[in-house]
Amino acid sequence: MVYRLSPLEWCVGYLDVRRRRPRVSWTALPTVTAACLVLALLAGAHEPVGVDAEQRLVLSQLESALLHDTAQPQYARAVRQFDSRGYLLGIGDFSTANGEAFEVVQSYAAQVGPTPLSRRYLTVLARLSADQDPSVTDLAGLPAAWAQASADARFRRAQDDVLESRYLAPALSLARTLDIRTQLGVAILLDSMLQHGNTDDVDSLPALVRRATHRAGGPPGTVTEREWLAALLRARRATLTSPADLEHRDTWPYTVGRVDVLAALLDGGHDTLRPPLTVAPYGTPRLISPTF
């Protein structure tokens, strides 16, 4: 078998002046040294952060605990909180006013064809989404129909897909832009995006990122990732305690446990989200330990 040296190994061999004479001329040595330094930097470059199959399951259970106080993802869940979102449905609190519930039903119908859920509600959900309308007048029976559809694995998959496209993929993209290198960092951005949104609102995630960067004294890379994430969580907790949007002032202060859980995971060094993990955002311990 022929063994070929990597470029970095080649450099090490050529520049090992402690044991033998360099195999390049002394006049060429500075050029070779500079080239090898570049190769060393490239060799140390990190891969963009990602999440493997187990970490995705951990994220699913963790987000369920943070959102719904249970490690079991709530595909059949349907509530109305009397805010600007209409009904909140499924694992991501998909809103009937913001288009997320429409996307789930549309994706499901594309997989399986017309169903009682799509026949009755798809057109209405499309209109509510287009108008950003929180009204539920034309959605009588939707919670029961949603729960019934959730018995189908394909409907659950449609929810997973919308959660990924709406939130997880943007959270991963933002993590890479910010040079966040840990899966816990992705989880923190994901939960923040789910609760605060990704808009230009002063309570939204982009505003929190700006405040965190200011508080930390710079972005990740200028300061350590752990310092920056801690600053983000402090900024987020302050926003939950006293949001600028009056609509959230009756509910967000009761959800600071979400931030406290993430801060505890950060302090505990759970960067890779390897289970088992125990969290208690609302006082009751929840075990995060998915099985394949």
Secondary structure category:
mainly alpha
Main sheet: strands, sense, barrel: 3 strands, antiparallel
Average pLDDT reading: 88
Query: What would CATH call the architecture of the largest domain?
Result: Up-down Bundle
Beta content comes to under 5%
- Gyration radius over CA: 24 Å
Give the low-pLDDT segments.
1-26, 32-44
> How many DSSP-defined strands?
5
**Large-scale geometry:** globular
CATH level-four homologous superfamily name of the largest domain: Chitosanase, subunit A, domain 1
CATH class of the largest domain: Mainly Alpha
Order of helices and strands: HHHEEEHHHHHHHHEE
Task: Please list the strands of the largest sheet in the order they lie side by side.
Answer: 1-2-3
What's the N-to-C terminus distance? 39 Å
CATH topology of the largest domain: Chitosanase, subunit A, domain 1
How many helical elements?
11
Question: What does this protein structure show overall?
Answer:
By secondary structure, the protein is mainly alpha-helical. The protein has 3 domains: 7-44; 50-75 and 163-292, Chitosanase, subunit A, domain 1 (Up-down Bundle); 76-149, Chitosanase, Chain A, domain 2. It is 54% helix and 5% strand. The protein has helices at 7-14, 29-44, 53-68, 100-112, 116-131, 142-149, 153-178, 183-196, 205-216, 225-241, 256-267, and strands at 78-80, 87-89, 94-95, 277-279, 286-288. Helix 4 packs across helix 7 (153-178).
